[in-house]
Automatic annotation (TrEMBL):
Annotated organism of origin: Chondromyces apiculatus DSM 436
Obligatory cofactor(s): Mg(2+)
Key words of the record: Folate biosynthesis, Magnesium, Metal-binding, Transferase
Protein name: Dihydropteroate synthase
Keyword Cell cycle: no
Family to which the UniProt record says this protein belongs: Belongs to the DHPS family.
Gene Ontology biological process terms from the UniProt entry: folic acid biosynthetic process; tetrahydrofolate biosynthetic process
Reaction(s) the record says it catalyses: (7,8-dihydropterin-6-yl)methyl diphosphate + 4-aminobenzoate = 7,8-dihydropteroate + diphosphate
GO terms assigned for molecular function: dihydropteroate synthase activity; metal ion binding
Amino acid sequence: MIMGVLNRTPDSFSDGGRFTDDGAASAHIEAMLDEGADIIDIGAESTRPGARLVPDDEQIARIGSGVRDAVRLGALVSIDTTSPVVAERALGEGAAIVNSVSLDVAPALGALCARHDASLVLMHSRGAMTGMAGFSVYDDDAYDDVVADVSREWMHAAERAMEAGLSRDELLLDPGLGFAKNARHSLELVARLDELCALGFPVLVGPSRKSFVARAASAADPDLKEAPPEQRLGGTLAACLACASAGAAVLRVHDITPTRQALAFAAALTDARRATSASAGKEDLPR
């Protein structure tokens, strides 16, 4: 599934300020649905490093008619927030998923989603965005084994959400690429995503336009400059294909059509290889 991003913020790292107006936001929702987005993820609090915490009432004001408009247009809506107050407001307006960038609120959001028969995405991170040092900046030795540590810390939060009443079937795991992780950590999570998928929960990943994509690319090819967010589509698509092939259930992206095209080509290529293999097998049979 493809989750399209709608940032109703003035300061998000990639497209802050573009969709703060209700009309522009509604038009973008409609465009993403026309392009084939399965889920629309609406957020009103930036998660860039050093971003300030946004009070509940300000988040609600920023969201405006966004959730209602998306539901009216037939979207499956996710609300991107760590606030139970904001989440409950959005669920009351028709949202079906809460997408939290914090594990700390797992019990409260788990109980809330259980009451509303909604799903909960828990993203792995450590600490608030206000304390993040920068994009893909994190102590290289902060994890003994980043996949094992992320798995353990995420499972602890998931258990607290389930203890609060949430069904296991309504939980999704997000490894939190770029959050409290440097570029090497995020790249390793992508490379070993199959291990996270083996935990038995649907996995959502959000590599779209993130700094680790540019840093990994420039490290592999020193002639490549570290690209700004709007020039990271190639690396984003490569990351999305890698995650999808490893078993990711949801890709959270800004660019719907290119992502769908890349996934469709990968599927066509797989079919072509199978057909070629089957044909070769028939030719090898004794006559």
